[in-house]
Amino acid sequence: MATDFTGKTVVVTGGARGQGAAHTALFAELGATVHSLDLLDDLGTALQKDLTGRGLDVTYRHHDVTSEADWDALVAHLGERHGSLDALVNNAGIVHTAEIPEENLARFQQVLSVNTTGVFLGMNKCWALLAGARGSIVNTASVYGLHSNPGYVAYTASKAAVVGMTRTAAIEGAPLGIRANCVSPGTVQTQQLADEGRSYVREATPMDRGAAPSEISHVVAFLASPAASFVTGVEVPVDGGFSAH
Questions:
Q1: Which is the most buried residue in 58, 95, 163, 229, by most CB within 10 A?
Q2: Which pTM does this prediction carry?
Q3: Out of 144, 152, 155, 200, which one is annotated catalytic?
């Protein structure tokens, strides 16, 4: 769905590759000034070079979503440059698999730190900027926020928390004009999926394929746009029918 983001400011975490790179590109193509955040500096700067070479307004920034100091520095920069923030896309995430008896605390906490604490910090630190623009939050959850499979105890815990936090943000943000929603992708054809290996979700998807990252991006852009002005607090599966089971 084409939506005009001209004059709007958008932050995308995990923006250097995969879904985040697709989100960054689409928002920029729709006219936004996009701040793309990641730890993958080579990929992030290459994406910025490609998109700015096409005349789009994209800035890559090295950013650790688990770092309060990095969020504080980003908010200070956004406040100086823009004064407000129209959309925050909390996309950064990692996946790690181990069944409960083989899981260890350090790996469990690492997944929650990125996938859950990173989302909390983004909302927490950007709240005032979002209120200034009556802006929108779009968090990336997962079909594993409501479903699960052996080996996903950490990932499922992290994404279920994202769904819950999104609902809380919607209730708290409504009086300020802040909307908060989340997308729950199923299988997406990214490097993360290739790293993960065999995918139960992919095998159980009625549409019998994974999504292209851009198919997630168009839903994210809709939720962030005025076209979704009365949509808040929802979890939107983008999963080729997986959650219909």
A1: 58
A2: 0.94
A3: 155
